[in-house]
């Protein structure tokens, strides 16, 4: 992570333009990518690429590796839950990244989808064709892919308007102390891999419901009303019930005791309004085998 101060010559420039002026060895597209990947902060806050900076502003920037210009098709099996001319719905496995990113340029869900569907032009980002929403690498479950630009925009608006109903299953190491969590979530000021509760973060809301208990473990149903990064994992920890196996927000002792190295979190159900028919449609998966050994 590097710290720099905006010079007078770059004052009142767009953020991406100011970065190009300050670091002429890199392209504007590169800095737009860094901004999108949350690797740039201005005075401790995330800004959009179009926002203006002022002389004296402090820029904190992490120079991440370049990504490929576009995702490529790869012959990777998909667990298809549903498909029609407008959408593809799959059950994403644990360990699969949704789209190419630093450290994961291939082997992603996007690479597999491109092999299944062929090239699709649904958004302006060539690394995320068809992707409307995401799941963490080690979170399994339902994810919807848009097959054309109009469908992509329709479903994206549903997520933005919070009309999509999402239900997750999680195994936690204790009972949540708060069953309805509302808070602001933002990037951790020290550990950039983590999110945390921050007054200046983005508003988030999760409802927890206890399904089963077995010893000190609980099977929890989580219904996130918003879609912040790591939201359920952060809220589970904040409610006193960290998710078993979570390497970032979980209990090291419990993870070691149960020999779990990835979070037991699964997107079990997703309900959207079909972008063509206008009817509600629900996609559901069974409880994963990795949960069944506990409940």
Report what the structure shows:
This protein is of the alpha+beta class and 295 residues long. It folds into 3 domains: 2-61, Structural Genomics Hypothetical 15.5 Kd Protein In mrcA-pckA Intergenic Region, Chain A (Roll), CATH 3.10.290.10; 80-161, Pseudouridine synthase; 167-263, Pseudouridine synthase (2-Layer Sandwich). Helices cover 19% and strands 28% of the residues. The protein is built from 7 helices and 13 strands. It has helices at residues 15-22, 28-36, 109-117, 149-160, 231-238, 252-258, 289-292; strands at residues 2-5, 40-42, 58-61, 80-83, 87-92, 140-146, 165-172, 180-187, 195-197, 202-214, 217-224, 265-273, 280-284. Strands 4, 5, 6, 7, 8, 9, 10, 11, 12 and 13 form a 10-stranded mixed sheet that branches. The protein has a 3-stranded antiparallel sheet with strand order 1-3-2, with no helix packed on it. Strand 12 and strand 13 (280-284) form a beta hairpin. Helix 1 crosses helix 2 (28-36). The longest helix is centred in the middle third of the chain and has 12 residues, at 149-160. The termini are far apart.
CATH architecture descriptor text of the largest domain: 2-Layer Sandwich
Distance between the termini: 43 Å
Q: What is the CATH T-level topology of the largest domain? A: Pseudouridine synthase
| Proportion of residues in β-strands | 25-35%
Number of helices: 7
């Amino acid at each position: 992570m590097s710290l720099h101060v905006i010079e007078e010559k770059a004052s009142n420039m767009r953020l991406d333009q100011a970065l190009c002026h300050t670091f002429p060895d890199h392209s504007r597209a590169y800095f737009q990518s860094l901004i999108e990947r949350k690797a740039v902060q201005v005075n401790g806050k995330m800004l959009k690429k179009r926002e203006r900076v002022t002389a004296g502003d402090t820029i904190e920037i992490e120079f991440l590796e370049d990504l490929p210009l576009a995702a490529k098709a790869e012959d990777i099996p998909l667990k298809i839950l549903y498909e029609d001319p407008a959408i593809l719905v799959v059950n994403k496995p644990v360990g699969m990244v949704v789209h190419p990113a630093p450290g994961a340029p291939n082997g992603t869900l996007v690479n597999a989808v491109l092999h299944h569907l062929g090239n699709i032009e649904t958004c302006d980002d060539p690394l995320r064709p068809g992707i409307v929403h995401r799941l963490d690498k080690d979170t399994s479950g339902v994810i919807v892919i848009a097959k054309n630009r109009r469908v992509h925009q329709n479903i994206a608006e549903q997520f933005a308007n919070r009309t999509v109903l999402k239900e997750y299953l999680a195994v936690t190491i204790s009972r949540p102390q708060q069953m309805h969590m509302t808070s602001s979530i933002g990037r951790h000021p020290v550990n950039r891999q983590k999110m945390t509760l921050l007054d200046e973060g983005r508003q988030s809301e999760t409802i927890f419901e206890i399904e089963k208990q077995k010893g000190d473990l609980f099977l929890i149903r989580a219904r996130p009303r918003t879609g912040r990064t790591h939201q359920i994992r952060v809220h589970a920890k904040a409610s006193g019930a960290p998710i078993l196996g979570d390497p970032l927000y979980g209990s090291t002792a419990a993870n070691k005791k149960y020999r779990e190295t990835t979070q037991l979190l699964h997107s079990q159900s997703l309900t959207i309004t079909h972008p063509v028919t206008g009817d509600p449609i629900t996609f559901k998966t069974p409880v994963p085998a990795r949960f069944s050994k506990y409940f």
